[in-house]
Amino acid sequence: YVASGESSPTSAVAMTIQGNTGNVGIGTTGPGAKLDIQGGGVNIGVSGDNQYLNIFGTIRVQSPASLLWDIARVGSNLNFHYYSGSAWTTNRLVLTPSGISSDGTLTISGTGNSSIAGNVGIGTTGPSYKLDVTDDVRIGAITPGYASASPDLFIQGNLEVDATAYMDGPLVSSSSISTSGTITQTGSGVVFFSGNVGIGTTGPSTKLEVNGTITATAVSAPGLILQTVYNAWTATTTQSTAYTYVDATGSDLSITAKRTSSIFKITVNASGYYSGSASTNVGIKYVGTNTQILGVPGSSGDGWMGAGNGPANSSFNITRIAFHNPGTVAGTTYTYRAMLGLWNVGTSYINYSGYNGTSIITIDEIAQ
What we know:
- The chain is an all-beta fold.
- The chain is 0% helix and 39% strand.
- The chain has no helices and 29 strands.
- The strands form eight sheets. Strands 18, 19, 22, 26, 28 and 29 form a six-stranded antiparallel β-sheet that branches.
- Strand 8 and strand 9 form a beta hairpin.
- The radius of gyration is 47 Å and the shape is rod-shaped.
């Protein structure tokens, strides 16, 4: 039916061509565009035919009226634009001869596997690696606590590296770091540990605890205890004159220096029991030169760093400390002896293995 300027045809029709507008309607008697098809689909050709629909303008998909999609060719690209009712978006999706780009969000809601043969860039349009990220990366619901001006990697769980891990900056951990392999720091960066560090032990009780031998070309750590040795000993002396002291070889303790120019800290804890009233004094001797380094043999209690008089039938416990530098040479052995002195005790004696148990001499080698 061809309507010539009529707005209401007088009979049912399958196709309408409006003479005044040139619009063609299929399934409608009031076509609103050059071709207006309603109530059915459009077939081009038959199965197997090589037929085409050539469009030299823009395809607009509209539903409802305020939501529009425009599909248009721009140069060699196919651009998809979206109208939200107030403004058009930029290129929401662009198909190019070399790939796909979008200024919106890419969501893959399927549960199947997805694969990308090339590189993936986040924050960069020219990735050089399989995954190339130009800003921070967070794995898990961790709250970053050490963010820097450079891109950071935040991991809530464990990080497992089966090969070698290289770091150009500091390694910082607020929890723990463990490895069954090797940690190598080849750069000039710094590794920070806010807690204790254990080497050869999983339960360090100090800032650095090593269960084993340390070998180093140089150690710059004045005050560092390089090693500790000790010896428990007992001795008994019976008074025969107004003054006597025990020079018992059982109290000897030897130490082999680990480092040249170190010093020794000698600690003696002497304990025992008075059978009568007495004044108890403790001395320390360097056996190598027979030199007294704490207390003077044959002198009074003050010279011997004494504890003073004790009443009869009472116990005592005395601790004395001396520092000695014998001109330490690494690999050389040095021997020290703890001594007990009694002053004006009449017929009294002191038994080291008595009331308070065994006494101990301890030597710490300390770095300078």
